[in-house]
Amino acid sequence: MDKSYEATNGGTDDSQTASFSLLTRHEAALFSRTSIRKLDQAKANGEIAYVAIGRSIRFQVSDVQAWLDRQRVKARRN
Questions:
Q1: What are the tens digits of pLDDT across the range 12-67?
Q2: How many domains, in total, are found in the chain?
Q3: Which of the four, 4, 23, 59, 60, has the lowest number of CB atoms within 10 Å?
Q4: Cβ contact 69:32 at 8 Å
Q5: Looking at the predicted structure, is the pLDDT value of residue 4 above 70?
Q6: Does residue 36 lie in a domain region?
Q7: Is residue 31 part of a domain?
Q8: Of 72, 66, 68, which Cα lies nearest the Cα of 19?
């Protein structure tokens, strides 16, 4: 993902670039264009890394991107 993704507060502060942002479950689902349920399943199966802050769950953009990269299916030659 490019660094045009901004934190949910709408800020463009360089200290909040995509590679360091923590996303909520909802934001991570939007970023990955998948459902929260699918994201929760991936978390429960140990397929995606997450940060637990008390009872809150957050995802690093880089971890979501890595999970998406692992889902990629290579094209077959004809």
A1: 444 444 456 899 999 999 999 999 999 999 999 999 999 999 999 999 999 999 99
A2: 1
A3: 4
A4: no
A5: no
A6: yes
A7: yes
A8: 66
Three-state DSSP string of the chain: CCCCCCCCCCCCCHHHCHHHCEECHHHHHHHHCCCHHHHHHHHHCCCCCCEEECCEEEEEHHHHHHHHHHHCCCCCCC
Q: Is residue 50 part of a domain?
A: yes
Tell the residue number behind the tokens 């800020």, with chain if given. Answer: 11
Q: Is 54 left (phi over 0), alpha (psi -120 to 50) or beta?
A: left
pTM of the model: 0.70
- CB 46 within 8 Å of CB 53: no
Give yes or no for residue 11 having a pLDDT over 50: no
User: Does residue 48 fall inside a structural domain?
Assistant: yes
Q: Which pLDDT value is given to residue 20?
A: 62
